[in-house]
Amino acid sequence: MSSPNAVSGRFAPSPSGDLHIGNLRTAVLAWLFARSTGRGFAMRMEDLDRAKPGADLRQLDDLRALGLSWDEPVIYQSDRRDVYRAVIDEMVDAGTTFECFCTRREILEAPSAPHAPQGAYPGTCRDLTEAQRAERRAERPAAIRLRARASSFTVHDVLHGDVSGDVDDFVLVRNDGTPAYNLVVVVDDAASGIDQVVRGDDLLTSAPRQAYLATLLGHRPPEYAHVPMVLNRDGARLAKRDGAVTMADLAGQGVDAGGVLSMIATSLGMADAGEPVTMTDLLERFDPARLPTKPWVFEPRPADG
Ligand code: GLU
User: Is 25 a known ligand-binding residue?
Assistant: First the structure.
């Protein structure tokens, strides 16, 4: 997993379906942030769950059609289970984890620890004895949680400044054995030399946990840029059911890849409405300080069919 550039930005979609215009806009921004600072650009498929066959290739085709390029090869998390397993084994051996048998309901109903951040794991399984663990293992498989030694951590975000957020004993491996997003994102970003993470601002509150974990694993946390989301007219996060939101939907309505890029550029204040642009044009015009800080409200026409 080495990249020709020592440091990189990246885009890391979940191949659960076609990218919609909000995801595409985030990808365009991630590419612009990386290339405008001389970084490499890595593409990673977060396909440990919810992957739909063929969705990865359609996502890559759509990104190529917009004019994005990345350093090969595309990384698939499903190829890296051994790497995650090795990291987990090391953490278990070092005593920085514990087995957790709680159901969602038990967590919600448990009294929270004094001074713990709201919604934080209440600590139920943190100090079980070996005998108690053996008993619980007979009932259900364990998840593995981080034994956090901090309750807050501060990250630097190019758009949001210094952001402090909660850290708790978050899940590293789910009880079905799947390594959790918060673990794999940290392991993979470090392995690929990613020092700049650009993604939707719905993940801003996850960044302190991830950066804390990076530090524990001996990595320097990346710089972040959490970019505004694309919303529907009701102010909710844009979704496929909102109408024509994917490249395929828009193509069906006569908007080609160039048209989609132009719409994205216009929404970012980087082109006039309907002006044809390329990624190279956008690279010349890109200025992070002038990016809109508010979400883009996208009002799609109904999807055909
Ligand atoms: N796979 C995540 C998503 O599609 C993005 C994760 C990240 O960029 O850290 O929302």
Answer: no
pLDDT, tens digit, 9 for 90 and up, residues 241-262 = 999 999 999 999 999 999 999 9
145 CA to centre of own chain: 20
To the question of whether residue 41 is assigned a binding role by annotation, the answer is no
Q: How many residues does the structure list for the chain?
A: 305
In terms of phi and psi (left: phi > 0; alpha: psi -120 to 50; beta: otherwise), the region of 235 is left
List, in order of start, the domains of the chain with CATH numbers: 8-77+188-210+226-295 (3.40.50.620), 81-187 (3.90.800.10)
User: 260 and 66 in contact (C-beta within 8 Å)?
Assistant: yes
**pLDDT tens-place string over residues 81-118:** 999 999 999 999 999 999 999 999 999 888 877 777 77
- Whether 46 is in the pocket of ligand 1, judged by its Cβ within 6 Å, is yes
102 is in an annotated binding site: yes
Pocket test for ligand 1, best of 10, 11, 14, 77 (most atoms within 8 A of CB): 14
For residue 161, with 0-12 CB atoms within 10 Å meaning exposed, 13-18 middle and 19 or more buried, which class applies? exposed
| 138-161 confidence digits (pLDDT tens) | 999 999 999 999 999 999 999 999
199 lines ligand 1 (CB under 6 A): yes
- CB of 13 within 6 A of ligand 1: the answer is yes
Cβ of 185 below 6 Å from ligand 1: yes
